[in-house]
Amino acid sequence: MHVLVMGGNRFVGRLLVLRLLAGGHRVAVLNRGRLPHPFGDRVERLVCDRTSSELEPLLGGRTFDAVVDLSAFSGEDGRRAAALFEGRVGHYVMISTGQVYLVRKTCPRPAREEDYDGPVMERPTDPADLADWEYGKGKRDCEDALSAADGFPATRVRIPMVNGPLDYFRRIEGYLWRLLDGGPVILPDGGTHRVRHVDGGEVARFLSSILLRPETMGRAYNLAQEETPTLSELVSTLGTLLGSRAELLPLPSAALRAAGLDPAEVSPFSGRWMSFLDPARAKGELGFTHAPLSQGLLAIVSSFLSHTPSDFPPGYLRRAEELSLARRG
What is the CATH number of domain 2-328? Predict the structure, then answer.
């Protein structure tokens, strides 16, 4: 296949390109060219901001067997992609998000693909919610634009929080540093809520497996791990893999806020905008089963221990204040 990968050369996109190259496919990568990449001359580099007027001349009359788009975030991105690739691509796959469900006025848990339709909540006035709402709403607009493009061979893949050794948001790493320093690890409200994420390598594996499969065109698929541990159980597993004896300390979110600490910075998986998806359609229709959660967590911990970063993730920088609150509470 001749595949164009748009954006995303930091995490899932990088893993996808490597998998495609390993499979003997011809790959072109289009992004702004601001980051280094490990592909060498095995890929064709197309450097462009997709929103600029240079996009159409750069792509010219090119055709592709498949396009995987990791950088479409708005209705305009979807409309432009459908117009640009009409008649010039065999399969277009857009990476969407579980937040397309969270911006609904009522969001079922777990959310299934058939739960997509329905009214969207009003634009929030709280700045803490605005960026997440805009992200989910923009992805919905993009999905809707693709669906409205009659006959366009698009598949939408909705993913929740993505974990893996290459996660540049360094979310699980935040827990690992806290487990490594002896703790305690503060879990807002006890970490009793259940989480269902996805592994970056499994996203890449799924994407490469569906390209040019006609039964996926015009469809949307949730992709997520099978397991649904509580956050407390997840962090306990990380502690076991790390060999840590650090205590997990439940504290009310209100106490953290009163101390001037954001619960989502203290505990990255304690934020409000955390989707919880049902992956049954991908399994039932396509036979895709996500690798065991334990396998992915072991890879993350092993990578952390083998290549421990020289700096701390942003949420860890106020660790002294967390410990002071823990001693008081």
Answer: 3.40.50.720
